[in-house]
Amino acid sequence: MTPAQRDLAQQLFEEAIRGGTPDASAWIATRTLDGQVAAEVKRLLSQHGSHATHAESTAQPPVRLADALIGQMLGGYRIDRMIGAGGMGRVYLGVSAMDSSHEAAMKVLGRSVSGPIALSRFEREREVMARLKHPGIAAFYDGGMYDDGAGAVPWFAMELIANATELADWCEKRNLGLRARLSLVAEVSDAIGHAHRAGIVHRDLKPANILVTETGEPKVIDFGVARCMGTDSGSTAVQTQTGQLVGTMQYMSPEQFAGDPRKIDARADVYALGVILYELIANTYPHDVRALSVSDAARIVCEVDAPDIRSVASEIDDALAALVAKCLARARADRFDDAGAVSQSLRRWLRGESSVGLVPMMDSASFESVPPGKRARGAAHPLEQVSIQRSSGWMIPAVSMILVALVVLVATGIVTPNSVVRWWQMFSTDVGAGSPDPTSTTAVEPISIVTDPAGARVTIDGLEIGVTPTSSTISWTATSTSASIHISLAGFKPQTHVIAAAPRGGRTAPLQMRVRLDPVAEPTVP
Questions:
Q1: Contact, 263 vs 283, CB < 8 A?
Q2: Cβ-proximal residues to 512 (8 Å cutoff; 6+ apart), any chain
C-alpha cells in the first residue's frame, strides 16, 4: 500500500469507530472503491475487537462498532468517550478518578500506526509538552503506557480545551477587527517564544493548531513534529531525516522545503507566524500552494519573494507591512530571531510606536516595479523614508531661508556676527535638549517583568503586552510623568505599579520588575 492509501484506511477506521455501523462491509463500500484500502480498514476493525452484523443478519439488532478503551482507566483518568481522531491516533475525554470535575483530553497512539517513526513522534510530543508550561500552550498532565492485549501503547493526558474554535474561524465568526487579530497573534507569539526559549521549534504552526477558548484565549496544540534545537536525540533524527518534509505545505518555510533538519530553527516558526498574519489580515496567502505538487510549491516558496501585503490590503500602513515582510523573508537571517521578537514588534505597533525593529523594505508605490530578486535588500526602511522625506520637505527650505535672512541682516548692520554666534549656540542647546512639541516621543525605554508564579498578564497604560516573563518598552514624551503597569493572574491578587517617567538624561540602570503575587485568600467556613 502507498502512504496515501494507508492514511485513508486509518481515517476510515477512525470514522467507523466514532460513528458505528450495522454492516461494516457495506459501510466501507460507500466510502472507497479501493480494494486495498477496504481490506486494510476491515483488518484494523478486526484487530480493534469491533463487531458488526452482516447484511443478511437483519433479524438481529444492529451492533455498533465498540471501542475497547471506553470505561477503562489510564493513569488516574477514566475514559468517557472519544472526542477526536487523526492519522496518529485517537483523543478521548478522560475524567479524573479523584475529582470528577477535572477533565482531560487523553491522546492515545493508534495501534495501526505504532511503527518506530510514529512512536518516536508521539513520545517526542509527550516529552515536549511536559517541558512547556505557558498559559498559551495546552498544559500537560500525565502520561504512560497501557497494554491493549497486543503490546504496550503510549498515551498522555493534556488540558481539555472545551468548545474551542480554530484561530481563523474565531476571527471570521466574530468579525474581529485588525487590532484584535494582531493581539491574538501576539499572544500566540508569546507562547511560541516560550517554546523557543526552551529550545523547541514547533514546525507545524497553522490556525488549525491554534485553538481559541470560549473566553478568547489562544492555546497552541500539536507538538507532534516539534524539534529540540541542538539537543535532538537519535529518536528525533529518525523522524527528521534529510530530504523528509515535516509540516503543512501552506505554512512551511523555504528551509523546511529543503528538507535539511540542521537548518531548522526558531525562524521556521517565525515564517509560519508571518503566513498566519498575512492570512488573518488579507484573507489570502502570500503563496497559495495548496493545489500544487511538493516540487512546484517548493520552487515558489524558495525562489519567489512573498508579495507585499499592501498589494491585497491597501489600508495596511508601512510599519505593519514591513513587520509581515520581515517574518516572511526567504533568507533566515532576514527574519526575526524568534517568536518573542515577533510578539514584541506586534505590541509596539499596537501601542502606536513608530519604530518596531523592522527590516529594510521598499515603499508600496515602487514595490511592484522592482524585480523579485532585488526586493527587500538594501532599500531604506519605510519609516526612515517617511522621516527623511518629511524632514527634508520643510527643514531644508526653512534653513535656507534663515541663512539668507541672516546674511541680509548682517550685511545691513541690523545684527552683528557675535549675535549670530550666540543665537546659534542657544538654538543648538534647545535642539539637543529635546523637541518643544509636548506630544513628540522623546525616549523609548525597555522594561522586563518577571513574576512569581509566571504566566501573569501584563498591561502598560491599558495596553496588553503579554504574559510573564516578558519584555517590552515604555514610550516617554516630554509631558510624561508616569506609566501604570497592571499585573493579574487567576487565583492571585492583581497588582498595579506606577513607574515614574525616565529623567531627561535617562536612567542609570534598565527597568526590571520582579513581582511576587499573593494568592487570593480562600473564605473561611465557620
A1: no
A2: 447, 448, 449, 450
Alpha-carbon distance of 371 to 512, in angstroms, equals 46
> CB-side exposure of 82: number of CA atoms within 13 Å?
20
Decide if 165-379 and 441-516 have a common fold: no
* Contact yes or no for 483/498 (Cβ under 8 A): yes
Helix axes 35-48, 3-19, angle to 10 degrees: 50
Q: What is the pLDDT of residue 436?
A: 43
Higher pLDDT, 366 or 455: 455
Non-local CB neighbours of 496 within 8 Å, separated by 6+ positions: 484, 485, 486, 487
Q: With residue 239 as reference, give the H or E element that holds it.
A: helix 234-239
Q: In 3D, which of 517, 193, 516 has the Cα closest to residue 344?
A: 193
Top-ranked range on mean pLDDT: pick from 15-29, 86-100, 204-218, 420-434: 204-218
165-379 sits in which CATH class? mainly alpha
**CB within 8 Å of 266: residues ≥ 6 apart:** 196, 201, 229, 337, 338, 339
Tell me phi and psi for residue 201, to 5 degrees.
-110, 130
What percentage of the chain has pLDDT greater than the value 90? 33
pLDDT-wise least confident of 31-40, 109-118, 250-259? 109-118
Residue 359 in grid coordinates: 527590516
Q: How confident is the model at residue 245 (pLDDT cuts 50, 70, 90)?
A: low
pLDDT band at 377 (very low <50, low <70, confident <90, very high): very low
Q: Taking the CB of residue 211, how many other CB atoms lie within 10 A of it?
A: 21
How many CA atoms does the CB half-sphere of 212 hold within 13 Å? 21
Question: Once rounded to an integer, what is the mean pLDDT over residues 450-461?
Answer: 86
> Which residues, 6 or more positions from 472, have their beta carbon under 8 angstroms from its beta carbon?
344, 347, 348, 446, 447, 449, 458, 460, 465, 466
Backbone angles phi, psi at 163, to 5 degrees: 55, 35
73-159: CATH topology is Phosphorylase Kinase; domain 1 (3.30.200)
- Helix H or strand E encompassing 447: strand 441-452
* Cα–Cα dist 411/408, whole Å: 5
Fold entry, domain 441-516: Immunoglobulin-like (2.60.40)
Partner residues linked to 496 by β-bridges: 486
User: Of these residues, 67, 142, 190, 204, which one is catalytic?
Assistant: 204
pLDDT given at position 79: 93
Q: Active site includes 99?
A: no
Q: Provide the residue ranges of all domains of the chain, joining segments of one domain with +.
A: 73-159, 165-379, 391-433, 441-516
Chain-centroid distance of CA 460 in Å reads 22
Q: pTM of the prediction? A: 0.58
Question: Given this model, what pLDDT does residue 416 score?
Answer: 59
Q: Using the predicted structure, report yes or no on whether residue 262 has a pLDDT greater than 90.
A: no
